[in-house]
Design a protein that fits this description.
This protein has about 170 residues and is mostly helical. Helix content is about 55%, strand content about 10%. The protein is built from five helices and three strands, in the order αβαααββα. Helix 1 packs across helix 4.
């Protein structure tokens, strides 16, 4: 009986599975998103999210634990330098799985797995918001425009006085 055994073996031996998940985790950290099957994406999410939680606190112990899973110095450096500061405020759910259809060769259900904080399209709290045709300015943009407005008005006021003098000269002639 297999009661309580919910781990997906993905049709591989334990060593092959751990090597595959380690390689996929390194690719996800390096490229921020990868295309794979839905089953592998779900297995990768379970594998990589605890590593991302460990990376939020940059200690030698945590670096060694993460390295024992990833076995790639560049991926560990990337994780602790660029990924960890972006996910520092998030309490979990660091990855997103988006189903993308079926693979042509074998009709396998494919998906895109990505790091949530690195996608500007889906992230509404991004620092640089995309503007639309009906642009809604942020409060910082409004204050910048308000601070610049009086300077523009002062410059505009001076030429009007000169223009008034020139019109008076024209009427005298």
């Amino acid at each position: 009986m297999r009661h309580g055994k919910k781990f997906n073996h993905l049709g591989r031996t334990a060593s092959h599975r751990s090597a595959m998940l380690s390689n996929m985790a390194c690719s996800l950290i390096e490229h921020k998103r990868i295309n794979t099957t839905v089953a592998k994406a779900k297995a990768l999410r379970v594998y990589v999210e605890p590593l991302l939680t460990k990376a939020k606190e940059d200690t030698t112990h945590n670096r060694r634990i993460v390295f024992s899973y990833l076995q790639n110095k560049e991926a560990v450096t990337e994780l602790f330098r660029t990924v960890a500061p972006k996910i520092a405020e998030r309490n979990g759910g660091y990855t997103r799985i988006i189903k993308t259809g079926f693979r042509p060769g074998d009709a396998a259900d494919t998906a895109l797995i990505e790091l949530v904080d690195f996608n500007e399209l889906y992230n509404p709290n991004a620092e640089e918001k995309k503007t639309t045709r009906r642009s809604r300015r942020s409060t910082t943009a409004k204050t910048a425009v308000a601070a610049a407005a009086p300077v523009v008005e002062e410059k505009a006021a001076e030429p009007t006085a000169e223009a008034a003098d020139s019109t008076e000269e024209k009427t005298e002639e």
